[in-house]
Design a protein that fits this description.
With 52 residues, this protein is mainly alpha-helical. It is built from 3 helices and no strands. It has one domain. The protein has helices spanning 2-14, 21-30, 32-51. α1 crosses α2. The longest helix is centred in the C-terminal third of the chain and has 20 residues, at 32-51.
Length: 52
């Protein structure tokens, strides 16, 4: 759980995504699968944008 929160925070910081520790914690705790899909999609979109 702590690793997921940390990863989510790192992704938000790297790609300048709004949010905070409280929302990271709630999302990781309540919606783990949704969180992982969201992170995966966001990384994919951001990396595609950087390649252009």
């Amino acid at each position: 759980m702590i690793v997921q929160i940390s990863n989510r925070s790192a992704i938000r910081t790297r790609y300048n995504i709004d949010g905070g520790c409280c929302s990271d914690c709630c999302t990781a705790w309540c919606c783990t699968l949704c969180e992982l899909v969201q992170e995966s999609r966001e990384i994919e979109l951001e990396e595609r944008a950087l390649q252009r």
